[in-house]
Amino acid sequence: MHLVPAGADVLDLACGTGRHTALFSASGFKVTAVDRDISQLGVLAERKNIEVHQVDLEGETNWPFSNRSFGAIVVANYLHRPLIPHLISALEPGGVLIYETFAAGNEQFGKPSNPNFLLEPGELMDVVAGKLTVVAYEHGVLHHPRSAVVQRICAMNRSDPVVLQPR
Ligand SMILES: C[S@@+](CC[C@H](N)C(=O)[O-])C[C@H]1O[C@@H](n2cnc3c(N)ncnc32)[C@H](O)[C@@H]1O
After folding, report:
1. Among 74, 75, 97, 127, whose Cα sits 20 to 30 Å from the Cα of 25?
2. In this structure, is residue 164 part of a structural domain?
3. Does 162 fall in a domain?
4. Share of the chain above pLDDT 90, in %
5. Is the CB of 9 under 6 A from ligand 1?
6. Residue 119 burial (CB < 10 Å; 0-12/13-18/19+)?
7. Which of ligand 1's atoms lies nearest the C-alpha of 75?
8. Count of alpha carbons within 13 Å of 55, Cβ hemisphere only?
9. What is the per-residue pLDDT across 108-161, written as a single tens digit (0 to 9) for each?
């Protein structure tokens, strides 16, 4: 989050209950929260700096933001591959893509086990290659809150080196 430009518009795609919408809006960012089931947002939807869109992202007109751009795009635990090029194009200069979802190998722990919902090793690196600069990438097993194989990337629409947070 420290890499997101101050005052950026943040897109939380397939926001669910709004874990990340809540985090970014509490930090002063204006957040656009999108899901096909916006009821999960509850009272969060009433916050002044949150714009809510009910959209079926896998429907006929699946990309609802063709004339908009964002300083950060967050996608967690959701994968619909045709949307990925739109995410990359919608990043403003200096913008950050933060994407984490289940990956190949998760079948051993349960669902999702359908390959349509599991990233291949290196897939997020491949989709941003030549378009965004990768700041961080991981693919591995998490054991909390439950065992799962995940892949995650933080990539930016800039080429100069970013300031990393100290460990
Ligand atoms: C596992 S939840 C993840 C929620 C949130 N990103 C998080 O990490 O807490 C997946 C979300 O994707 C949404 N979703 C699934 N298919 C969708 C679609 N076709 N269009 C829009 N949202 C969809 C679901 O409604 C659900 O809220």
Report:
1. 127
2. no
3. no
4. 95
5. no
6. buried
7. 6
8. 19
9. 999 999 999 999 999 999 999 999 999 999 999 999 999 999 999 999 999 999
